[in-house]
Amino acid sequence: MTSTSSRAFEIIVWGATGFTGKLVCQHIAQAYQGRLRWAIAGRDKSKLEQLRSDLSVINEGCKEVPILLADARDGAAMGQILCQTRVVLAMAGPYALYGDKVLEQCVEQGTHYCDITGETTWIKKSFLKYNEKAKEKGVKLVHCCGFDSIPSDLGTFMMVDYIKNHLGKKTAKVTALFGAAKGGVSGGTIASGMNMVASEPLSEIMNMGSNAYYLAELANKKGSDIPAPMLPSYIAPARCWAGPFIMEGVNGRIVHLSDALVTGHYGTDFKYLEVSKTGVGWMGWITAGIVGALTATISTSMVLSPFRALAKMVLPAPGQGPSVEVQKSGFWKCNLYAESEEEAGTPGVLVEGLCGDPKRDPGYLSTSRMVLEAGLCLALEDQRLLAQGCAQSGVMTAAAAMGMVLVERLRAAGFTWEVVRVAGKEAKTKAA
Question: Where is the Saccharopine dehydrogenase NADP binding domain (predicted)?
Answer without folding.
Answer: 11-140
